Amino acid sequence: MVAKRSTRPSLPLIVYLLLAILLATVPVACLLSVFDAAAVRQELAANTEASRHQTESGVVLAVNLVDAGLKLFDKTLDRQMEEGFRLFIAEYERAGRDPAKMDLARVKEELGGEMDIYIINESGVIEYTTYPPDLGLDFRQLPDFYERITEIRLGDSLVADRAVPSLASGELRKYAYMPSPDHRYLFELGLEGTEFRQERTALKYRVAARELVDENPDVLDIRIFGSQGEMIVGEAHPDDDRRLELVRRAYHERTTLEVENTTAGEQIRYLFVDMTDLDYVSDMSLVVELTYTTRRAEAELAGIFDRHVGVLLIAVLCIGSLSVLGAHRL
Fold this sequence. Notes:
The structure is a single chain. With 330 residues, the chain is an alpha+beta fold. Helices cover 49% and strands 19% of the residues. It is rod-shaped and about 120 Å long.
């Protein structure tokens, strides 16, 4: 007796048609959605980068404009300091060109008590001064600055500098330099910042930079640092030790550095703004620290993903419904 072979029941034709239609259309819909999402993501990234570039270009331009105004103001003090050197040199000649015999306190008094007097020797050390905090300051620790003042000492002309923070105290002072007649010393005058600080601070980096930064919602904070790492604009942060290292590195390498903190959702950029002027001793170049948030872009990307998933589900549902009708019709 021959045993009957059990046969597997076949699926209805409509099911095969439905599966064929879905397999032909759903992958296409998914690919189109993926390509569209990638294009939107790329466009969003490009727009974010363009916005940052525009902000940073505006900040650099604003900083340069403010510096140009400060430079013009600093020049108005040059004549006053040039006249001060006449008494300085006259006292040097009276003392027989021996700085130890000069009455620096009297010269300062004759200058109105506004300017401090410095005598820098051939080694770049402040040997005599009416400003005790700077006594013994060795400019060889700043090779570029030492090279520049050595050129002035060996030259024959007065060189007026910008108003910059004192290395010892951080106080704002306007400096000028002139070689001694025998080129053994470099004479320096430092005008106290109290005489011009109020007028000079009318031109502020903070205001110029903030106006541009406020236009970019991705910017969380802006700070500006000087050549010695001193903060000109901004407030202290708990991790300033690490940040100041990056500031000094950006200044030393004269470049732009970027650090990303994915945990905090931040991206920090250190922009070196080159404002070197060979007419002056001090380098007025700055480093601008811009802190961006990446959360807004991430939120937009997440929103785009959610919208595409929703559209894809609706598309699949519509395709499925139409497929059922089409298969039934066939």
